[in-house]
Amino acid sequence: MSTLIKALAALTAGALTAYLLPKHKKGKEKKRLPVGESFRFLAEQTGTCRDPIPVYYYRPATWTEDQPVFISFPDVTRRAEKFERHMESLAVKYNMLIACPEFSTKKYPGARWYQEGNVQDKEGEEGTIQPRNHWSFDAVNHIVAAVRARTHAKGKVIIFGHSAGGQFMHRYSLLDGRADVDAIVCANAGWFTMPDDTTCYPYGTKGLGLSDAGLASAFALPVIMLMGSEDVSREQPFRATPEADAQGKNRMERCLHYFDACQKKAEELGVPFNWKKGVVEGAAHEGGKMAEGAMKLFCEEPLDETVGM
Length: 309
What we know:
This is Hydrolase. The chain is an alpha/beta fold.
């Protein structure tokens, strides 16, 4: 009888070991992204509903965890999967892993929820400022953390937004930039929230409770304002309101106006200003060319100099 008990005990111990160890290994393997295209859902509480955010990935065959990760936030079309595929050749060329989160129009409808970050309960100047826990910007922090965990990234992490995504990125960096990243690239944004507490949101910061310390934190971030040299058209979609035109007659003028106003504000406060500005020569309002221009900064150009200026 004792022999039988010992045999059963041995089998039980062996089964337990076999159950625990392979399961741990499989779990670890599942977290690693495969080479090529892949797709993951991310649970996200911001937005109008609790639908998860789809994140589309592309991992070049030569990419390792020490290489850069490029997280691209969508333009006004919100077509993250299409843009990820458009950037696959760039991912291979610059050996960067691409992650494109999708901000659907169902979960983040209109400019209020995406470009303007749901800071107000209505789009435009007629809205009422909402509590910070209603803002959409927390999604950026969650996405960056999830991508880092999924990719095991040890190298540089860049977040990039073009057009509507550039608007979202610039307001995120000014009002709530807390993600652990090496650069926040705002490309070809159409118009801006100025660091002006006498002008109502979304054109200014009046009523937001943005303190001098908050501005100092924003100006200390690794922000890059990127412009296309040919992005001077006023064709739709382009905001031509008097308030937006006061910032400049095209996207490049507005970006320079915003950068200069922020730099001047930092000087007034006597705080460091770590932002940079750059021009992608030959690029109009083109997400692919702007993304490549941003990638080059981390592969070919020094980051301690203004690019193309």
